[in-house]
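[SOLVED] Need 3D model of a two-part complex

Original post:
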Amino acid sequence: MKNESNTSLANVKRKKTAVAAGVFLLPAFLLIAIYFIYPIIDTFVISAYKWNGISSARTFVGLENWKTLIHDKNFWDAFEHNIIIMVFSIMLQIPIGMLLATFLDAGGKKFNAFKIIWFLPYLMSSVAIAFLFTYALATNGGIFSSLASIIKGTKVTIDLLGRSPHALFAVIGVMAWQYTPFYMVYFMAGYGNIDTTIYEAAIIDGATRGQYVRLIAIPLLGPIFKTACTMSLIGSLKYFDLIWNLTQGGPVNSTELMATYMYKLSFQQFNMGYGSCVAAGMFILITVIALLFQKVFVVKEDY
Amino acid sequence: MKNRILAVLSVAVLTVTTLVGCGSSASIDSAEVPATGPDESTTGKQTDGKNLPELTTEEMTITLWDIATEEPGRPTQEAAVARFMKDYPNIHVEQVHQQNDNYKQQLVVAMSSGQCPDMYVSWGGGPMAEYYKSGFADDITDLYNKYDHPDFIDAAIAQGSYKDKILGIPFGSLSGCDIFYNKTIFKDLGLEVPETIDELEDVCAKLKENGITPFALANSAKWTGSMYYMYLVARHSGNDEFDAAYTQEGSFGSEAFLFASDKIQDWVKKGYFPDGVNSLSPDDGQDKQLLYDGSCAMMLHGSWMAGSMSSDNAEWYQENIGVFRFPEDSEAKAKGVPQDVEIGTAIGNCFNFNSKGDQAKLEAMYVLATQYYNDDTYNQMQMDSFQTPSIKGFENQVTDPNMKIITDVFFQASNVQLWYDQYLPASVTEVHKNSMSALFGLEKNGAEIGADQDAAMKAAIEEQ
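Solution:
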């Protein structure tokens, strides 16, 4: 009898906690459900239809769109461009960001001016950056063409955005210009988190600044590297805005990414069903790659 | 001459400012003045005495989407709406100016989410057909035949129609596509305006010898390069081969298309187009800049460029810029192929209507589009900004000498071929535009882009 009342009291308490938790979690859950979960599910649903995006009539086609997607050369080309961008982004943005952060960390307050100037690109919107670089990379009057002309003494045209392999790398360069400052700040925060006593101990033990960075700071920044790489990876795979405003995927699809391809299909070619299928395909690919990356490059956090 | 233009401009500015003033006060009026009775409302309107439907006296709101975000379009169109609301105070027009770049996408999103505006601007062609098939564009043939409307030129109505149903009321202006050239350079080098494509090539060769790139082209938008392709096809075969390719009874790889591709690639190899042509952007004016700084001597472009260049620097424009129609293909002419097909659009823009079966609203929108847009005040404001309305008779009122030539060429054309990128189904447009990049970038030849476009066209036909 006593026992029973005890358990029921515990039950009541547990129930109350559950209700309270539910009430507090509900608004957040609703928001997430409406703005994240529902659209993702709906994307998958629409991908099973043939639909122009505006009419009320949708035709159910089952896995037809998915079959097309698997054999769609444009999509896999776009995916390849995404992978190239991903690899180069990680190779460029993170090491350079790291170098700049190391430099600023060593200089302390003296280098505050650099800190501000170097951070500026990240503060600009992608649209503004795209606009800026359309001019900077232009063949008539752009920075590179003008510089080359001055050096050579005759008119030289350097066409970075208008030709096939070059355009993708020009875009990678612009992306690095835009995002390196972000990783710089990220690594600066990482340096800030390393206990000063560790630095002091290393110096007392006779370590040079170089040894400290190489043997102590960088290993301690390991987890930061891992997160930075994951962010860069996901960001590169779903990239859209800068490319759209700089090249619209051109010339001849050479800078087409999965996201720009999806946008063109859905909103320019009246093919919302297949566009959704591409979006869903992107979702699956990005999730799989990000999870694989996490699995393969797990850094032990053992300090 | 200069003084006269200044005078015209200042008058235009004055009219615009006064009308903008009217615009804002009129919309306040419509909110404050209570709905007037039917007797009062029939007096003093600019539509009095015309054969038009009797409009409702009940409160009504019409949402209207346009792309008039900049002058001179915005004040011109806002004034038209203001005049309408002054005459019909019970009808409120909610005019929303959308950014052109994203307009088509915005519209698709609005339609799919049940927020389609009551009347909206379109360019006719493939997308308009799509709106109609999805039930977002009313067939207004009956209204048009029954009631008064401006005397639009036939090509304008044809362009606002789909399968013989009138869907759109034009309110833009006709846009031809001709070659602007630097008169001073031509004179200095002793060059004549070319009449045939062979002569054009001679001119190009001479320009090149003198270190001047013949054509100012910025092809990052792709429809700019398409103008050369379309004209070469049209001069070589009239409309025949394109029409056949459109139904796929013919092919985009047929003779005229190969002729056009080969010519263009030959010209690219000879350096007749600027370096980095695929990365230059017409939206940033990088093509006309090449004309301005004298590094290029000719530019095939839409007639709106006349107004655009004139507003950049009216004096320089008057002194240096002339215009001629795309030269003839003498061999094709000998075979009897018409040489007067014009590439362009007869309407610029038209309004489509989405009344969802509300006849009273449709009638109100019809009156607004035909009688307030397209009225004398509206047309005058259009003319003042170098735009020729697609209404019969206006060809005689053009004053700018270049616009005069452009308009005459347009009105004498045996047929107007709408820009491929507006005419073709949306999925084919994308392929066509990429083909233009590949063509000017020498990445694919005529047969290859022909095959690409055929494949896209076949797929589009199957879907219909």
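Edit: The interface with chain B takes residues 52-57, 134-135, 137-141, 157-164, 167, 247, 250-253, 264, 267-272 of chain A (CB under 8 Å).
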